[in-house]
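Note to self: user wants both folds in one dump. Writing first protein now.
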Amino acid sequence: MLDELLGRAPLKARIDELEEENERLRERYEAESERRADAATARQEAEEQQNRLEDRIAQLEGELERIEADDGGPTVRRRVDLRGARLEDVLERLRSLRTAPEGALTASLEEEIPGSVRDDLSDVLGERVALLEDAAPCLCCVDDAGLVSVALDSPVRPDFEPTWTDRFDLEREWFLPTGRHALALVRADLFALGTYEDDERVDYRGFESDVKGNHSKGGFSQARFERIRDDQIDDHLERCREALAERDADRLYVVGQRGVVDTLVEEAALEPAATAAVDATGDPKPALEDAYRSFWTTTLTVI
């Protein structure tokens, strides 16, 4: 009665309405936070499952190759990783071969081999051309007598039309560190940049950034955690861009975590001579050394 006489009743009713509305908004906010956290958790679980499936696929493909080999199909004669002096020696042997004017084919093959090139290869290799398709993408060298038939998984894979000439067209810089160049190793939390003259490092810069690891507790805290981590990675990549802008070499190779490498190359508008996924761990300088050796390795497959 007193509230009505003093005119407070409508105000109290309005306060009650606002409190109810505030409660509804709070519940909606909490529900949305939980939904976003669940979505982040689901995405993380999906990525982990995708990685497991990719590993399983690779395992099954390897088993399939072994089964096909046991069935009496064609098999590679040899597969070996080459680097340094041994690689240089093998390249010189291939480059020293001389044939008739159109007796040696050098081709940069993608996963899908053009029909005309496959026909040329089939004329020489027969059913063994399937082994070359398995090795692609690669550089291949085949002579018309079938004496030489190799696939080279080189650090740098040039883009050129398949050519029949009197020798194999193999440039040293596709396989070996040549002249002044730079190689950058990039991870989400690490950067290392080496400048080289041939295979000798003449300059170095590296650093690590404080980037949070994976978070799997769920809830609203996970969404906030991931935003912080993304911001930390963005800051790290900005430092990487600044370091690359100051490099003292025009020819650049970028290796490391594939997604991080792709993002850095795109955002920094880089035009590297080659990129590669390289698994290098540890502190920046030793990790760079491991990445450099891994990158400058060529897999030779004798068909």
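First done. Writing the second protein, which came from a different request thread.
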Amino acid sequence: MKSILVPVGSSKNAESHLQYAIDFARAFGAKVYVVQIYNVYTKAGTMIKVDHILERESLSFLNGHVAKIDTKGVEVIVRTFKGKLIDTLELACKALKVDLILLEPRTNSIKDEVYLGKTSGKIVKQTNIPALIVPESYVYRPMIYILVALKSAIIKKKEALQPLKEIKNQYKSIVNLLLVKTTFYNEGDFNVNEELAVMITKTTNSENATTFQGVLEHHQANKPDLLCVVRRKRGFFTKLWESNTILKKDFHSSTLPVLVLSGIK
């Protein structure tokens, strides 16, 4: 894990989040891209060229933001991009060879009841880039206990498990697996391949309506430092992803980081 991207919004948690990203990146020897994406909507006949103004203001804002943080020797690179959020973010991650996005739950939302705001929700739901969602004001600490929750252990996508593998290796983590049998269960879904099996200390089987409900039932017993789930079209966040905004009352694990792996099927 050599390249980490941190999108910056206007939340009051932005400084705390960037400090976590720096501390996390330092453990892996990674560099951090601090990024802001802006879009321009101009009226017909407008004489003023606003692109350069917005870019200059955005860069100034990001440089001031980084200046408030103890970078601890980590290489921090500031970038601004113009375009639609998801398309631009995916292009930027590809160009910068990003291994992981570190997300605030609420980059712009000020509503206390919100866990995952619209911007972060879109990034998690609509991109296929591995993401680590870090709770607000969360202080960096090693991820010793990891709970991986899956409704299917079938892994077809190459390198899908790489972020989990690198985190486990870095912290010498204990990884427990929760296999949740839902109504969509197919024969063979719980056949764990060797790449995943070698990482697992303990496996628990559960039967629930959704993977999300299985996690709610079992995560307290595991007391993980990190919850790891998989982004699928109809996966862990089936209940939650009907809207890009996710409320805290609907996600009781909002006090620990959540690693969202890219689709593995």
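Dump finished. Worth passing along: The chain has seven helices and twelve strands.
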